[in-house]
Amino acid sequence: MRYLAQTFCHSLVVAVGVEFLLRVWHLEAPLEKIRFRILALALPVFGFPLFQLLYPARGELAFRTQFALLDVSKWLRLPLPKGLTLGAVLFCFFVGISVVFVVQEVLPAIQHFLRCHKRDLQCVSPEAYPELHTVTSEIARSFGCAVPVLRMMEEEVPVIYFAGIQRHALIFSKPLLTLLDPLELKAVLAHEMAHLLRRENRWNLWLLLLRVAMFYNPVAMLVFHRILKEKEKLCDDCAVAATGLSNHLASGLLKVWRAAETVKSPPARFWLANKVDALESYSRRAVVEERLHRLLYPQATGDVPYFGLRIILTAVGVGTLLFFVV
Amino acid sequence: MKLLRHLPGIIAPLLALLAGTTLLLRAVDYLPALWLREVLPEVERFHSPRELEARLGTKLLLPAYFPDYLAWPPARSELYYWPGLEVRIFIDSRDSRETQLIIYQLLADELALPADPGLVLAEKNIFIHGAGAKLAWIRDGAGQRWYRLAWRTAQARLVLLAKLPPGELVRIAQSMRPL
What we know:
The complex is a heterodimer of chains A (326) and B (179).
Chain A: H1 2-24, H2 30-54, H3 61-66, H4 72-76, H5 86-118, E1 122-123, H6 130-143, E2 149-153, E3 160-163, E4 169-173, H7 174-179, H8 182-197, H9 200-213, H10 218-243, H11 246-262, H12 271-296, H13 307-323
Chain B: H1 2-35, E1 42-46, H2 49-56, E2 61-63, E3 76-81, E4 85-92, E5 99-106, E6 118-128, E7 131-140, E8 145-152, E9 157-162, H3 166-174, E10 176-178
Antiparallel strand pairs in B: 1-3, 2-10, 3-4, 4-5, 5-9, 6-7, 7-8, 8-9
């Protein structure tokens, strides 16, 4: 329990510290934010074993009483009414977060994986959709990458995403082609191909491993989602840089999101599941709004000098601080 | 040169963050002490001070001078888990099995000094190895005399509470070191 509470505190300290530095140093570019937030996700995972390796006596009473800045066991032992301790309540909280993690993240991911693999996704030939192939080739040329394989899925809602870690493919549904006008389609395809160009699925897998290692940790959950959000913004920027179609990307994004929102899933049987769904829907809406705002009112983000030095100093400084949180 | 120009802008916020977080963490570490003022702590009991030292992972300060009429090993060696740690060692008389000396070692600054067993009649400032100490004369409800000697070392705050003569108590205090 002390390990769980300790890594939770580590996550909280790093996450708050990173957000503070992002603001003070005016780090606005998505890539810079992503790198700093990965630090916030990774430090608590690797920090604890590293600290124990460097100084095995770190967990002992002598260190905790004489050198620690914060000893979480003091909090865990705090008595509450009815013979409970704060540690027991915190444990229940972590169990709750783990359940949310499994229900909201693991199960949908497995379902999605199985659905994609069970279905025989049709490979789209250039002859069947010549315009689509022309646009895709055009974007691939401007990105300087190979034309991806296009696959179509049978779905009533407009869908587009890229899949695969070794062999990439752009997967879309037919309604997408009728919903979007050609320029919107080009912008949206460019966004998805930016994910592909950046080999995001491979990176996402590593991120997911970090997230899984902190499955009980609500701060890690927030940081993980913020990283994913920044990745979308980064690919928006890549798509706009390649096509110059920021307004079309915005309208395309809005159309796809609205179409997906109109197809409501049946209400869940549990009150909690409904609430979580509502919260997720609200969060998705907020993300889309933020992306639309960036696309419609772009703001220049200048290069921040010595980014590497900043991130190293932050890792060393905050890492040192975490050593004394036991 | 360019780096030197940017360095203050990089270092200053980072140092401010680290300093602010350090203070905040210390404050958060102190909060349970306030919460627990009125609550009984967990107590762990040990057969000997050596066993207690092994649990703590550090040496305790123990008297090198030990009068014959006191019994060793101590009757009780206890570790109190307040939000900080407190060690209590109870030493009995060899004959009567009555507590003659209690050694308190407070391992955290936020811990309050142990309560006196009665009315403080007088206090005197003395020195133990150059450190300022307070010697107090106390009379408890049964009319018995107690002496309390409190001072601070680099390792902990120490309080000796005894029914021994003050001269003997000071001698014990001056002999205390990690053994």
